[in-house]
Design brief:
The structure holds three protein chains of three kinds. Chain A is α/β, with parallel strands linked by helices. Chain A is built from eight helices and eight strands; from the N terminus they run E-E-E-E-E-E-E-E-H-H-H-H-H-H-H-H. Chain C is flat, with a radius of gyration of 17 Å. Classes of the chains: A alpha/beta, B alpha/beta, C alpha+beta.
Chain lengths: 231, 510, 59
């Protein structure tokens, strides 16, 4: 059984998990599944931090289905996926509402059609993680930033796994629990401040994420902020 | 095999599209590649190039990618095209992929203290964006052409009411407080203020002033149509007023084509009231006598010479005479040995430079045909097949549909230069090279390659003018040396180059 | 900002269109922002939805 030794972790991965199975492998990210079906991730790059993830210096060759052990003894915390953030400043309104424009893209037309019923977005749209899920997570973060209860969306946590792909369902569940990815948190922090160059930089990092995922996420954030009535 | 793919709802500017096409054509097996927004005009162009375009659900906001590829796997090339659009391969450094706003409102949150919108969108969108900018309190520089005269008047009247200015449409050059906008040369700042209804005319005047160590504080472009009677010179007059009020400006220069009579009257009045000396250069005008504080010139270098004389408190008449003497010397240098052929061909990228060169050359050789001739009856039937003496402006509309302006991309004119060089009836070729911001990085290299590759027993004589300063990014010395290395005679001004080229021929004719 | 103020303060530019102009402005240390301009949506039900979301007039 292979043992891996990350050097840093997110705050919410703070116990040894008895068995983790490799679920998906990318250049700089490996996603793992616990017995209970929960996602954990190993990362090479800090900017890819998400809930229940840990940074590792190098990844060995792994295979899907392989069982591994992740040793967290004395591993420092480096990322808090639940950190509380202030709501974006009103002066950025015209800029962030631009992110709704991503919905003009032909591939995201389905999302635009269902925009009035966000819970219908689950599993909808193109992408290995459906764009509708990314949109929804952005939306949920927007609600969190503006103090709106996400329960209003009427999403049933228990049926998520059936409605959409595994990684996405974990992502949505985390969002409902108030946990988000580092790119999103960095952007939210920038929007609460006054440095516009930072906002453009952090937004840029999300726009280029995946083919459509990042754009859908930003559109969801913008929609949520717009719907919040704060602007 | 030629195939088209449509990408819906994604807009790219023409420069990006053409550069992607250029990159695709570098790939082995790609015979042709064309990327265009699906406007009616572009659809015709692509059909003419042999691509089958289905127009059923097509709108001008859709992108057409056309690729001609021999062999398997044409689909991969379309993927390549898309990846080039997303991540341009010609960008040398890894520019941080930061988000750029997509609306004017968004941009104003990023730079709330903006005072100018520089708009270079296709004509069909430009006017609406310009009005949005004016309504948000921004001045406008409208590089775009193909804006209707009604829109131009509406924009300028709105601007006037709101204490703003519209520079353009078709305004490619401006300098404000020493900073260049659009195509502009890096010149010193100083006590001169210029208002110009012409792009390369402005550039040549600034460059000639710079050679005489005279700096310009502001150079306001107004677009070519401003001084017509429909527009009434709104921007031109406003610019004169501001230059008149500026205590750091001691000489005002007005450059352009001759204005409509009632606009000319207002301009002259305004210059008289300015309380400063003014030099007026309306190209194509009949020569006029200087009167009071108003000095006239009909050529761009002469204009700079007059300004210099005024600035130094010298004798303007003497200065003009000295210039004429120098031109006579240039003519004198025109015996260059054996000439093969009978005709002069002028191949230009700057519209006003082409105009001035024709104007000067016609007093030595006649007639001169062209695509932007001095007289309508001298217009060429086919600008790609010049006859007799001909001057071609490759920046004209007919050449810039589906092609980058020759100042940005020298390839097309270089091809034409080679073609003209191999025409045995052509004895002399005259051309301009414009440096500065906006222009190509190494504009002479394509021309020099073309000259080197010319197959002909006796090549034509090449005469050129490099319009630039020693501070321009392209390194003027390097550009000149490149040209001289293949035997091009490089002159110090557009006027001198035209004079020399025309004299080489007229000597032969005598 | 009036024309006079533009001349006095120097340009601070919103570039809408060709990137090369924006890059040249940065080169001269002129404050500038570039707009990745997109044409307005062709009229359709999609546009109506977006219009409602934005609450402004998209032409």
């Amino acid at each position: 059984m292979i043992h891996l030794y990350p050097f840093e972790r997110s705050f919410d991965w703070n116990e040894e998990i008895s068995s983790l199975t490799v679920r998906s492998i990318y250049d700089t990210v490996v996603n793992l599944k616990s017995d209970s079906g929960t996602r954990f991730s190993l990362l090479l790059k800090m900017e890819d931090y998400l809930p229940r993830s840990a940074l590792i210096e190098a990844l060995p060759a792994l295979e899907k289905g392989q069982e591994i052990v992740v040793d967290l003894k004395c591993v420092a915390e480096g990322f808090d996926p639940s950190c509380l953030l202030e709501s974006p400043k009103v002066k950025w309104k015209d800029l962030l509402l631009e992110w709704l424009e991503f919905l003009k893209r032909e591939e995201l037309a389905d999302l635009l059609d269902n925009i009035d019923k966000p819970e219908k977005m689950i599993g909808l749209g193109p992408g290995s993680t459906p764009a509708g899920d990314d949109f929804l997570v952005g939306l949920i973060m927007a609600f969190r930033l503006t103090g709106i209860d996400s329960n209003e969306l009427g999403i049933d946590r228990n049926t998520l796994g059936r409605k959409t792909e595994w990684f996405s369902s974990e992502m949505i569940r985390d969002a409902l629990d108030g946990k988000f990815w580092k790119r999103g948190i960095d952007l939210a922090r920038a929007l609460a401040g006054d440095d516009v160059a930072r906002i453009l930089e952090k937004a840029g990092k999300i726009v280029e994420w995946g083919h459509l995922s990042g754009k859908a996420w930003l559109a969801g954030l913008a929609y949520g902020l717009e719907q919040s009535g704060v602007y | 095999m030629k195939r088209i793919e449509v990408v819906k709802g994604e807009y790219y500017d023409s420069v990006t599209l053409m550069m992607v096409a250029k990159e695709l054509k570098k790939i082995q097996g790609v015979g042709d590649a064309a990327l265009n927004m699906a406007t009616e005009a572009n659809v015709s162009i692509m059909r003419a190039a042999g691509f089958e375009v289905e127009t059923d659900s097509l709108s001008p906001d859709d992108l057409l990618i056309g690729i001609d590829f021999e062999g398997e796997g044409i689909e991969k090339l379309f993927d390549t095209a898309r990846s080039y659009l997303a991540r341009p391969p010609w960008r040398k450094e890894e520019i941080e992929a930061e988000y750029s706003p997509v609306t004017l409102s968004g941009a104003l949150t990023v730079l709330p203290e903006s005072n100018l919108a520089l708009i270079s969108l296709p004509g069909r969108y430009a006017a609406a964006e310009a009005m949005k900018a004016l309504k948000r309190g921004l001045n406008v520089m409208l590089y775009s052409d193909n804006v209707s005269i009604e829109d131009e008047v509406e924009l300028k009247q709105f601007a006037e009411k709101n204490d703003l200015i519209v520079m353009g449409p078709d305004c490619g050059t401006a300098v404000i407080n020493g900073k260049g906008l659009g195509f502009s040369n890096v010149c010193p700042t100083g006590p001169i203020g210029i208002v110009a209804a012409s792009g390369t005319g402005l550039q040549e005047v600034m460059v000639q002033l710079s050679r005489r160590n005279l700096g310009v504080k502001h150079a306001i472009g107004t677009g070519g149509r401003d001084v017509t009677s429909s527009v009434g010179g709104i921007s031109f007059l406003r610019a004169i007023k501001e230059l008149a009020d500026d205590s750091e400006i001691s000489i005002i220069v007005a450059v352009g084509k001759p204005p409509a009579p009632e606009v000319r009257k207002k301009i002259l009045e305004s210059l008289r009231e300015a309380g400063k000396q003014s030099v007026i250069c309306f190209m194509g005008d009949a020569p006029r006598k200087d009167e009071g504080s108003l000095y006239y010139s009909t050529q761009l270098e002469e204009c700079a010479v007059v300004v210099e004389a005024l600035h130094e408190g010298g004798d303007v008449t003497l200065a003009r005479e000295k210039l004429r003497t120098e031109y006579a010397k240039v003519s004198g240098k025109s015996s260059t040995g054996e000439l093969s052929g009978r005709y002069l061909r002028g191949l230009f990228t700057g519209g006003t430079l082409c105009y001035e060169a024709q104007y000067i050359a016609q007093s030595y050789i006649n007639p001169i045909y062209g695509n932007a001739p001095l007289r309508k009856d001298l217009k060429l039937e086919n600008s790609l097949k010049p006859v007799g003496h001909s001057f071609i402006d490759y920046g004209e509309d007919e050449f810039t549909q589906g092609r980058l302006h020759p100042m940005i991309d020298p390839t097309f004119r270089a091809e034409q230069l080679k073609k003209q060089s191999e025409d045995s009836s052509v004895a002399v070729i005259l051309f301009d090279v414009v440096l500065g911001y906006g222009s190509a990085e190494n504009p002479c290299s394509d021309l020099v390659e073309a000259i080197r590759s010319v197959k002909r027993d006796i090549k034509p004589v090449y005469v050129a003018y490099v319009c630039g300063t020693d501070r321009d990014p392209q390194d003027i010395e390097k550009q000149r040396s490149l040209l001289e290395s293949v035997g091009v005679i490089v002159c110090e001004s557009n006027a001198r180059a035209a004079t020399l080229a025309a004299n080489i021929l007229s000597r032969k004719e005598r | 900002m009036s024309f006079k103020e533009l001349l006095e303060d120097g340009p601070r530019v919103v570039n809408i269109g060709m990137d090369r102009f924006y890059l040249d402005l940065l080169d001269q240390e002129v404050p500038a922002v570039k707009v990745n301009w997109k044409p307005p949506l062709v009229k359709s039900s999609l546009m109506e939805k977006l219009k409602r979301l934005r609450g402004d007039d998209i032409e």
